[in-house]
Amino acid sequence: MRLNLHSLLILFCFLATSSVSAQDVHFSQIHASPTILNPAMTGLFIGDLRFIANARSQWQSVTKGYKSIAFAVDMKVYETNDGDFVGGGLQFVTDKAGDLDFKINSVGLNISYLKSIDRGRNFISFGLQNAFVTNSVDYSKIIAFDNEPAIQNGSEGKIKYVDISAGIGWFHNFNDDYAFHIGVSINHINKAYVSFFDNGYNDSDVYLYRKFVVHGTGDLKINRKSTLKPSFLVADQGPHKETTVGSFWKYRAGKDNRQRKPTYIYFGAWIRTHISKENFTTDAIICAVRLDIKNTFMTFTFDATISSLNKVAYGNGGPEFSLVQVIDFKKKRRPAKVECPAFLY
């Protein structure tokens, strides 16, 4: 059987990634995808119900690149007499890449518990996620010069598995002007088998690497109009290690300081680096603008590749958009004994 050069390149890349645990679906907006970042963030917002949508496109100059879409809904399920509560939510993620239409589809159930330690200054949250995941690839898109199949001894081009993650977070309010949170999550605790080819061997390279994430955000009020919101993320997944560090500048629009839910505009920038045994590389510069109008939060992000990979990306980078909508039900409800930290997003 003969394959043209383009198909050989695609097939080589596919075989390499199908036998090695790949990096997870990746969003640059660590503020706007909290339940993906850490299941302990489920239900942690001021309001009754929250909808989150994320869309990202990257590497479109290299074949079909990556297209990632995520959707989540979460809420407070039960509140105790002490002001603690249980949160719950659903999360949907789909990712598509390359000429072979490699797809990852995930449906996850999240549950969390927020414990108020001293009624407003310190909180600890715990979270779990149980997800059902399918991976698929379309072998028919491998172009050959004859009628022989490009993939033999086969594979159906689809695998299914359960994926378990967990996380914890600590939130501290110094006062009305200064606060921070820090969280730790562990993904792929059960290390699912992800090979398309069942060869009967117990090869560690075809199991998902566990991913360890440490992340944090601060809320530092400068004056009545301006607030700095620095944030960081450190992720370690097998050979993939990265850090993201930067900050939002948040500005309160309008002159009426008595508004209960004023309009805010944000401008932000982050630097993402990649760490390996051989070197330390600055991978991308991430720029973002965000607008908060009452309970609607919209963010547009663009990350520009500045590493040597920019020769392939041609400066196209990765545009990303997110929409967060919080809903307060009109029915009257008793005031919360302890308000959730307001700086989470």
Topology (elements, then pairings):
Blueprint lengths: L4 H14 L15 H4 L11 E10 L7 E14 L5 E13 L4 E15 L5 E15 L21 E16 L4 E10 L23 E11 L4 E12 L2 E13 L11 E12 L4 E14 L2 E10 L4 H4 L4 E10 L18
Antiparallel strand pairs: 1-2, 1-14, 2-3, 3-4, 4-5, 5-6, 6-7, 7-8, 8-9, 9-10, 10-11, 11-12, 12-13, 13-14
Could you please describe the fold and organization of this structure?
The chain has three helices and 14 strands. It is globular, with a radius of gyration of 22 Å. The protein has helices at 5-18, 34-37, 310-313; strands at 49-58, 66-79, 85-97, 102-116, 122-136, 158-173, 178-187, 211-221, 226-237, 240-252, 264-275, 280-293, 296-305, 318-327. Strand 9 and strand 10 form a beta hairpin. With 345 residues, the protein is mainly beta. A 14-stranded antiparallel barrel has the order 1-2-3-4-5-6-7-8-9-10-11-12-13-14. The protein has one domain: monomeric porin ompg (Porin, Beta Barrel).
Estimate nothing, just give the exact number of structural domains. 1
How many H/I helices?
3
How far apart the termini lie comes to 54 Å
Characterize the largest beta sheet: strand count, sense, and whether it forms a barrel. Answer: 14 strands, antiparallel, barrel
Which structural class matches the secondary elements?
mainly beta
Strand order of the largest sheet: 1-2-3-4-5-6-7-8-9-10-11-12-13-14
Shape: globular
